[in-house]
Amino acid sequence: MNCDRKGIIRAVLNRAESADEELKPFTTDCFGGDVFHFTRMKERLPKPIYKKLMDTVAEGQPLDASIADAVAHAMKEWALERGATHFTHWFQPLTGATAEKHDSFLEPVGNGQAIMSFSGKNLIVSEPDASSFPSGGIRSTFEARGYTAWDPTSPAFIKRGRNGATLCIPTAFCAYAGEALDKKTPLLRSMQALNRSVKRLMKCFGYDGSANAKIALGAEQEYFLIDEQFYYARPDLVQTGRTLFGAPPPKHQQLEDHYFGAIQNRILAFMTDVDSTLWRLGIPAKTRHNEVAPAQFELAPVFEELNLAVDHNMIIMEVLKQTAEKHGLVCLLHEKPFAGINGSGKHNNWSPIYGDINLLNPGSDPDQNAIFLTTLCSIIMAVDKHSDLLRSATASAGNDHRLGANEAPPAILSIFIGEQLADIIDQIEKGSLKSSKHAGSMRIGVDTLPALPRDTTDRNRTSPFAFTNNKFEFRAPGSSQSCAGCNIILNTIVAEAMDDIAALLEKVPKANFHSGLQAILQKVIKSHKRIIFNGDNYSEAWKKEAAKRGLPNLRTTPEAMAALIKPENIALFKKYGVFSEVEVRSRHEIFLEEYQRKIRIEGELSLNMARTIILPIGSKQLSELVKTIAVMSGCEIKAGLASQKAAAETIGKLLDGIELECRSLEKALAAKDASAKIVESMANLRKLVDTLEKRVDDDLWTLPKYREMLFIN
Ligand code: ADP
Ligand code: MG
Fold first, then answer.
1. What are the pLDDT digits (tens) for 506-522?
2. CA 66 to ligand 2 centroid distance, Å
């Protein structure tokens, strides 16, 4: 590795403008070119088979095995035309990443010949050797092997490498006894649960319940990009995805000159490449911009049906990383790669839709508004009752640095609904829906439910869970997390709340429907309004206020994870068929273990870097100073001697401090279950090292500095 930091900077600057292959101009018919989507299936499948397949997809019916061969054949022919040689069941195990094991279509048929083959069975199930995926004890209690099963609601796609292509078939991953070993299975279950509740609720409003509820998700993705030469010179970035040391530079994001700024050429070339790859994969990447922190960016696609959007977000993260590599950059998806500046999140924009009605769309139609307000109140109830569960879905070693820090939504969950809606909620609570502050936009609708302002323009960037026009935006999830986790929880808790409200509404006589509804909503608001907060979520005052309201503030992952296995929550998951008790407990165990392992890795690397990189640099500095002092002490010139001595004293003390903290860290690492101690000790060590960085001769410091990694490319 190149230890010459200045050399690395020169190399980054001299990097030959990456010989960007000319991108072929993108035409709209390229969109989805690498996806075996429904239109393509329709073109290529016999009508009856296509119809059966669509029934499966639209109605959530089990897949008819008799059509699998025909679908597999059409899929293979298409994939071969697109240059694919292999196929894989693509799935989302509990490791955080996606998994794939490739099989070639090639099938020897004797006499030195081969055909390209792909059967219905190949399409429907596969048995990856799953023994190394985390299962939290499920496989030891039940069955040693797991299997992946095709999810026909998410179309197959082709993933391209430098000189080949692979057909990827989105699948769910389960143990043989049926326990989910992945993130997709419970997501699909939670969508079914919410679908049932939405239908039940809509029946109360006079709908026949024949339409299916869909859930829309638009996931905004934040990320950092740095030059790969800096990355490879930082063992902490390579091993943990974040800088364990590094003093924030004098100028970072204070001037707010990066956010929405003009996008640099090199970055724009990268983004263009990303967009074109995503479009070919049928992923509707829409917006791209500079984010608040230097070297931080965001990509947002247009919202899609939840299951597909979750898969697409997983692909987006992969494409970001691979494309960065092609451009000599590294994409950091860690929630907090750099201390002292903004971290990265994933804004989860969510809305339930019945038929073509977005249940979160307020408007001027009084009937629609009754549905809107009921949905809103269901969500208020759900989030208040289960804010601990929602918080648990965002917990991770990386996100701990973000939640609770000053720029990210805090670990205390609350809901922002804006001033105008707050006013309406207030009136419903008081039972006196008259006029409002915003009389212009208010009309009392049928049976006292008001017409609502369509565009609540007020924006609150500090709330973890904000109503934004016609959707809720959950901002706590971390940039590297799968969207599955938080949506599983969101769907389940809203399913419960809607169910509870529907149960009450079903008892209301038709003639009093609106007054009955109003009384129910009034009660919901009275019991759950403490979760609504429209002020500054970053302020100290809110922390105090939230504590007074009894809202949980679960600061660390282990605290947050505990919610998963509370008896009432296990019962909730069971009731809605989302997780069995075994599944919840296994997840709790897996996530906690992953957290502890990550902390341990960071701790070990901190110790290692402190002893093998930082202390030696400090010693060199000290010995230079001491040499100077010795020489000066024997000569006439005394000016400067005092400052040399003072510098030596400072450096020496820091080195002693670092060595002392190294020993504490070492002790914490030797203990069992000492994550909290390790985290604390790493933070102490970091403070000392970052102070040392600011005192040591710039030429001696071998690790690339923040001011370089974040600003030079
Ligand atoms: P921002 O939050 O940055 O202002 P937008 O409000 O335009 O951005 O949208 C952010 C994301 O929300 C996009 O992915 C967008 O497609 C998605 N979105 C918009 N409307 C809905 C909706 N009804 N349900 C779910 N997601 C939505
Ligand atoms: Mg947003």
1. 999 988 888 899 899 99
2. 44
Q: Tokens 């060590």 sit at which residue?
A: 685
Residue 220 CB less than 6 A away from ligand 1: yes
Q: Is the CB of 216 under 6 A from ligand 1?
A: yes
Q: Which residues of the chain have pLDDT under 50?
A: 1-2, 435-448
pLDDT tens profile 555-587: 999 999 999 999 999 999 999 999 999 999 999
Other CB atoms within 10 A of residue 640 CB: 11
Task: Out of 194, 303, 379, 463, give the residue to mutate to test ligand 1, the one with the largest number of ligand atoms within 8 Å of its CB.
Answer: 303
Site of tokens 């994870």: 561
User: Could you give the count of Cα atoms lying within 13 Å of 182 in the half-sphere of its Cβ?
Assistant: 27
Q: What are the residue ranges of helices labelled H in 550-639?
A: 557-561, 567-575, 581-609, 615-633
Q: Is 138 in the pocket of ligand 1 (CB under 6 A)?
A: no
**Could you tell me the distance, in angstroms and rounded to a whole number, from the CA of residue 529 to the centre of ligand 1?**
25
CB neighbourhood size of 16 (10 A): 6
What's the gap between Cα 695 and its chain centre?
38
Does ligand 1 come within 6 angstroms of the Cβ of 468?
yes
- Of 298, 471, 475, 494, the one to substitute when testing ligand 1's pocket (max ligand atoms within 8 A of C-beta) is 471
Inter-helix orientation angle 484-505/306-326, to 10°: 160
* Gap from CA of 110 to ligand 2 centroid (Å): 58
CB 338 within 8 A of CB 241: no
pTM for the full predicted model: 0.95
Q: Where are the alpha helices (DSSP H) in 362-483?
A: 366-385, 387-392, 418-430
Instruction: Please spell the DSSP secondary structure of 463-516, one letter per residue.
Output: -SEEE-SSSEEE--SBTTS-THHHHHHHHHHHHHHHHHHHHHHTTS-GGGHHHH
498 vs 504: CA distance, rounded Å: 10
d(CA 196, CA 350): 18
Q: Using one digit for the tens of pLDDT, what is the confidence trace for 358-409?
A: 999 987 777 888 899 999 999 999 999 999 999 999 999 999 999 866 667 8
